[in-house]
Amino acid sequence: MKQLSTVWALAGALSLSSLPSTVRAAVYTNPSDVPSSNSYDFIVVGAGTAGNVVASRLSEDSSKKVLVIEAGVDDTGVVTVEVPFLAPLAQNTAVDWNYTTIPQTGLNGRSITVPRGFVLGGSSSINFLGWTRGSEDLYNKIASITGDSGWGWDALESFWTKISTFVQPTDNDQVTPDEIPQSNGNGPLDVSLPNFDIEPDERVFETAKLLQSQDSRFKYTVDMNAGDSLGFGYNQVTAGGGARTTSATAYLHPALNSRSNIDLLINTRVTRLLQSSTSGSTPVFGKVEVAQKAGGPKTVFQASSEVILSAGTIGTAQILLLSGIGPEADLGQVVVNSPDVGKNVRDHPLLELYFSVNSNDTYDDALRDADLQTTLLNQWFASKTGLFADTPVNTLGFMRLPDSFFTSGVSDPSSGAKSAHTEVIFVDAFVPTAQNPMPSVGDFMTVIVAVVSPTSVGSIKLASGGSDTFTQPLIDYGLLSTDFDVQAMLQAITDSETFIAASPFHRDGFLVAPFGGFANATTTQQKVDYMRNNADTVHHPVGSAKMGADSPSSPLGGDGVTDPRLRVRGVKGLRVVDASVLPIIPECHTQAAVYLIAERAASLIKEDNGM
Q: In this predicted structure, what is the pLDDT of residue 550?
């Protein structure tokens, strides 16, 4: 979607730099401006999806003082954050960390981008807004792995209701009352259904209903967030009133605007955590070192109760390693030998499949036509309606692999029978990539397939000479490095072809033929080659600081980097709250799981600190 050049220029003109700054107390842009007299009970590192939830919940206790430190920029007035359809334009910009992986063997040596939010709200401000909670099996599996029943589906229900509230779509009269999901509660985060009707939607629903009588792996679902995540249906999204909602808009800004016990420091990177004292022989990590440029002056802040590390799967691992908490084999000298830091990293591989269609209703023209882009953006500003009030994805589906997949000694990596192995996403246009630029003419549908229970494992390591967070770490997802992942992706391709071969996609001559390189991938080997030459990820990295069960016989008191209460093993005063603690990769889009982790973490922190 990089072809939206006119929109990008207009969005830039209307972005943070040219809008009047919002006057808010206790928001700092320079560490030296934070009064030295300020004494903090809690310091939250990262104002992202998880960090803002934790900071907001902790600041509900007016007797506690909270400092939030964010490396990135303010989100106020950033149009590419606010406008749902412009979500792809936020990546590879000033609101993105602009990471890349090391060359991936499974991708024929290609490096790929790793979008992560460099802005208030973190990746909740630059993602594609998908709200998929995963199945009850996922959370029961996490409870089993950690030995903590509090992570189970039933125990977490009260936290789910605290997060989101369903909001009616603004401009889509095709959504009928019986299609409204019931899985949301009364929390601050708006969740909605697609705001604008697009052509593939009803074809997807009709096909799922048609095929489910022939093959139980295909089915229609109204609410894939109700405990069983399988099926095809509407994509629930984090939006309300035609605009994106994030952890910043739902949690952080309301706290900043209504409380005096929370401070925010932006444009400032945490370079490492420092030991502040010892408790017996255990180091206490209560100090946070920050800087605003490489080699620049350092400032240290101290928390009297806890430091909460919420820098995300990439940033959290890097900060722990820079602080001497990690594998001795990788770091040499360590403060705490924590072998799992930076390990167990997983992401969902995806692949775009292109089809030409006979239609005048795709949004390909909106990706090419500068005048149309301006019209649509002005409509959004005027009424929060139209195509730009919508996300790029209206419909998707989650599927199991065939039972025959597991008859030859292949173990099932999913968390249970209600969890998916693969995902199919429908886009009413050509999705341009580095390998597949936007065609100058034609109308298209892109079917994106993904493996959501991958077995490939990667890592986060410090780069040689990387002594602070101004040097990107070495990010290795190990994508498509196992035969299971390759075979699962092949099955996802086959299932998507079966799906769109059904009659609803051929009504009125809608679907014409495969397009581009995918059209030439007719044999299994050609499909594998296409996969390795074109695959990317859904940008859902997890696991670099995984939690595990307690075990008195373990040197650190248990498995993983953190215990089930998310306290970092081997130290005191330090907790991790973000996607890095997930011991398995969710078979869904990850932002909902991260909100959930943060809500429960805030409750655990309050309990442990007598709040």
A: 97
Beta strand 243-244 with 262-265: parallel, antiparallel or unpaired?
unpaired
**Distance, CA of 452 to CA of 348 (rounded, Å):** 5
Marked catalytic residue, from 253, 348, 421, 540: 540
Q: Which residues contact 227 (CB under 8 A, 6 or more apart)?
A: 135, 136, 153, 418
In which region does residue 527 sit, left (phi positive, over 0), alpha (psi from -120 to 50) or beta (all else)? alpha
| CA 76 – CA 536 distance, rounded (Å) | 30
Residue 35, number of CB atoms within 10 A of its CB: 9
Alpha carbon dihedral 505, 509, 515, 518, in 10-degree steps, equals: 40
Q: How far is CA 375 from CA 239, 385, 387, 454, 460, in A?
A: 21, 12, 10, 42, 43
Q: Measuring CA to CA, which residue among 138, 246, 129, 253 is closest to residue 193?
A: 129
**Segment 435-490, tens digit of pLDDT:** 999 999 999 999 999 999 999 999 999 998 888 999 999 999 999 999 999 999 99
Taking the C-alpha atoms of residue 268 and residue 34, their distance in angstroms, rounded to an integer, is: 12
Given the residues 253, 348, 539, 589, the one annotated as active site: 589
Q: Is 538 flagged in the annotation as binding? A: no
73 marked as part of a ligand binding site:
no
Long-range pairs for 9-15: beta carbons < 8 A, 24 or more residues apart: 10/79, 10/373, 10/374, 10/377, 11/79, 11/80, 11/83, 11/86, 11/89, 11/377, 14/77, 14/79, 15/77, 15/78, 15/79, 15/80
User: d(Cα 263, Cα 27) in Å, to the nearest integer?
Assistant: 6
Please indicate whether residue 540 is annotated as part of the active site.
yes
Band (407; pLDDT cuts 50, 70, 90): confident
For the stretch 54-80, pLDDT in tens is: 999 999 999 999 999 999 999 999 999
Q: Which residue has the tokens 């334009």?
A: 89
Beta strands in 71-211 (DSSP E): 99-100, 113-114, 164-166, 189-191
Instruction: Spell out the CATH class of 78-94+124-147+168-243+346-455+481-537.
Output: alpha beta
* Helices and strands, number each (H, E), in the chain: 15, 27
Identify residue 101 by its one-letter amino acid code: T
d(CA 17, CA 75): 11
Q: Has 421 been annotated as catalytic?
A: no
Question: Which residue ranges make up each domain of the chain?
Answer: 26-71+247-343+543-608, 78-94+124-147+168-243+346-455+481-537
For residue 271, what is the enclosing H or E element?
Answer: strand 269-279
The domain made up of 26-71+247-343+543-608 is a member of CATH 3.50.50.60:
yes
Do 268 and 253 form a contact (C-beta atoms < 8 A)? no
Identify the pLDDT of residue 8.
46
CA 307 to chain centre: 23
Q: Which residue has the higher pLDDT, 76 or 5?
A: 76
Which two structure tokens, joined as six digits, stand for 247? 């952890």
Name the residue among 428, 401, 423, 420 with its Cα closest to residue 538. 423
Side-chain-facing half-sphere of 138: CA atoms under 13 Å: 28
